[in-house]
Write a structure and sequence with these properties.
heterodimer, A: 247 residues, alpha/beta, eight-stranded mixed sheet, two-stranded antiparallel sheet, 9 helices, 34% helix, globular, B: 379 residues, Rossmann fold, 2 domains, eleven-stranded mixed sheet, 11 strands, 29% helix, elongated, P-loop_NTPase (chain A), ELP6 (chain A), Elongator complex protein 6 (chain A), tRNA binding (chain B)
Chain lengths: 247, 379
């Protein structure tokens, strides 16, 4: 049902598409990333093509995703060994981002991260022009922290990722963003309509900006009726004619 | 209304004036702004290909979508498999900040990528340089009209919101004004997401526009109707005419696979008959209106302390004989009507239950007058 809601044709995400998963503290959307990993790395039928994934992990280590994906029938270690899956661990000490940053101080952190992602995509190319590469980011809120709070750098990074060419196709991007970690939902709990005070100029929040440019927005919310044993939340896609489904 | 906007883009600029500017503004309530922009873009492309438009070329500044999306056959003209060089794209999508240019001073470099002859685009490597961007737009425009200096071209900016990430409002408005002032520019169109910016920013950009198209939801935004609002909505177009008048039109739109369909809207004021009597009485549980008999009785009530409009002096009974009558009697003047009034006032009517006897404190006391009682003071 989720595939139908997303308009998934079975051959992977559309080239150049941006899929945004927006969650909150009450209903976390991290499980959607492993859902996408399984759908992309383990196709449901032989006729459908396989996609390759570059995963930018800033929130959890590789073992976390490997453990959950294994329960769902997807072996990330095997996919990594086959060259189908690349995991960029931004949490480990001495990772690509921090070690390279010492040498090239002139570039911004997200520019350096883009160069690493671009190199990873180029290394994965096998010469098959129909290969599709999906770049997954967990999560955009931590990207914003790395950029020093500059949401324009995060948006530029995601746009650059979408513009990377892999064969005939541009890369698709799946990004998780927390809809309730902006200053508007801070300690005071005030809602300024999606605006963040940034000096004298008010700017829209990262989730708000992404909402406009994303091709697909998946919103993960808690149930309006409260907690339940069997159903933990609901998922909505405002772009789809299929109504929300419970999980 | 949509046809009027398409005509405005087609007819272009009048001699001695700035190019018309069409601004499409939307919010997250509808997300239909890009689709509406695409509709007018396709319409303008059709007119240019058919030779009906003043502009002979079109420059698309790609900030929000890929350059190749503008060259897709489904976006312009129906059945055309290949477009000519009249459509040029300034690619601000692939490398807007110069991150792909290593070891090269990308600040002022504008390179062209013509590997694919169908994708005639000029790549912009520094979106923060508006002067360079303006030069790229004009350069692409001249290429679209085969460098003929007297032929005009139109410009489409697919997202001013992206430009506002990197530029201040004064810089952006200066850029848009310069574009409109260029002699070769026939018409300009841009898209803005109104909920991403402050209202003063949107208002400033609206002032630069000759036509503002508000893309609004058809229904009030409810959680259940969010899905419906993606495909349907309402367009409100405010156009400033040359004679200074502002015209506003409303239409409903429906986004389908083949394009956007527009249907006129019958406003509520047009349904209401002009001679409909509106009552101003508030709606309460008791009756505040007067019947005809009550109106007549009210008109016959003699109000105290006021003249009745019959030319006679109002006489107020103050509890003692009328001194004025006695003065008139001395002069031999009969003021019978006053006395009758007094008598009429003090005579008990048949069936009356009581009387009022008013005794003044002092008969010597003069009746109240308008004179200042302190006038006789000699200090």
């Amino acid at each position: 049902m989720m595939e139908e809601a997303l308009g998934w044709a079975g051959d992977g995400l559309p080239p150049g598409a941006l899929v945004m998963i927006k969650d909150c503290v009450a209903a976390k959307g991290g499980f959607f990333l492993t859902f996408f990993l399984k759908r992309l790395l383990v196709p449901s039928n032989v006729a459908s093509g396989r996609s390759k994934v570059v995963f930018v992990g800033m929130a959890e280590p590789f073992s976390h995703y490997g453990r959950i994906a294994k329960k769902q029938g997807c072996n990330l270690i095997q996919a990594r060994d086959n060259g189908q899956f690349v995991f960029l661990d931004m949490m480990a000490a001495g990772n690509h981002l921090t070690s390279e940053r010492r040498r090239e101080q002139a570039v911004s952190p997200l520019q350096r991260l883009y160069q690493i992602v671009n190199e990873s995509v180029k290394r994965m190319q096998t010469g098959n022009e129909n290969d599709r590469v999906v770049i997954m980011v967990d999560d955009a809120s931590l990207l914003e922290v790395s950029a020093g709070g500059r949401s324009d750098q995060v948006l530029a990074f995601l746009q650059y990722c979408r513009a990377i060419n892999s064969g005939h196709n541009r890369c698709s991007v799946v990004v998780l963003v927390h809809g309730d970690t902006d200053i508007t939902y801070g300690a005071a709990g005030l809602d300024n309509g999606g605006y963040v005070e940034h000096g004298e100029q008010r700017v829209a929040s990262l989730a708000h900006e992404l909402d406009h440019i994303a091709d697909v927005v998946i919103s993960v919310d808690p149930l309006s009726t409260g907690l339940a044993n069997d159903v933990h939340g609901q998922v909505g896609n405002p772009n789809s004619p299929v109504p929300s489904c419970g999980i | 209304m949509a046809e009027a906007v398409a005509r405005q883009l087609r007819d272009g600029v009048a001699v001695g004036e700035q190019a018309p500017a069409v601004m499409v503004r939307d919010t997250l309530d509808t997300r239909a702004g890009p689709a509406i922009c695409d509709h007018f873009f396709s319409s303008l492309c059709s007119n240019i290909e058919a030779g009906r438009a003043q502009a002979k070329g079109l420059v698309a500044v790609a900030l929000r979508r890929t350059p190749e999306s503008y060259t897709a056959a489904s976006l312009y003209g129906k059945g055309n498999s290949r477009r000519g060089s009249w459509l040029q794209v300034v690619d601000c999508y692939t490398d807007p900040l110069g991150w792909n240019c290593r070891g090269v001073d990308a600040k002022n470099e504008v390179s062209s990528d013509r590997a694919d002859s169908a994708a005639q685009s000029l790549i912009c490597h520094d979106i923060s340089d508006l002067t360079g961007l303006l030069a790229s737009v004009l350069q692409s425009g001249q290429a679209s009209v085969n460098k003929q200096a007297t032929v005009q071209f139109a410009v489409l900016i697919d997202s001013v919101s992206v430009l506002l990430r990197y530029h201040t409002l004064p810089a952006l408005t200066s850029f848009l004004s310069s574009l409109r002032s260029c002699e070769q520019v026939s018409a300009v169109m841009w898209l803005v997401h109104a909920d991403l910016h402050e209202s003063r920013v949107i208002a400033s950009i609206e002032y630069l526009s000759t036509t503002v198209i508000y893309v609004e939801p058809q229904l009030r935004l409810l959680s259940e109707s969010k899905i419906l609002n993606i495909r349907r909505g309402r367009l409100r177009a405010r156009t400033k005419k040359r004679n200074g008048r502002v015209r506003e039109q409303v239409e409903e739109f429906h986004i389908e696979l083949g394009g956007v369909n527009f249907t006129p809207v019958i406003l509520a004021k047009d349904l209401q008959p002009p001679n409909l009597m509106k009552t101003t009485t508030p709606k309460v549980q008791f009756n505040l209106d007067l019947s005809e008999k009550e109106r007549e009785d009210r008109s016959r009530v003699i109000l105290p302390f006021e003249h009745q409009g019959d030319g006679r002096e109002a006489h107020i009974y103050d509890g003692r004989p009328d001194t004025l009558d006695s003065d008139f009697e001395k002069l031999g003047i009969n003021r019978g009507y006053a006395k009758e009034t007094v008598i009429q006032n003090i005579e008990p009517t048949q069936g009356a239950v009581g009387e009022i006897h008013y005794l003044r404190d002092s008969d010597d006391e003069r009746p109240d007058s308008d004179e200042d009682p302190d006038d006789d003071l000699d200090i």
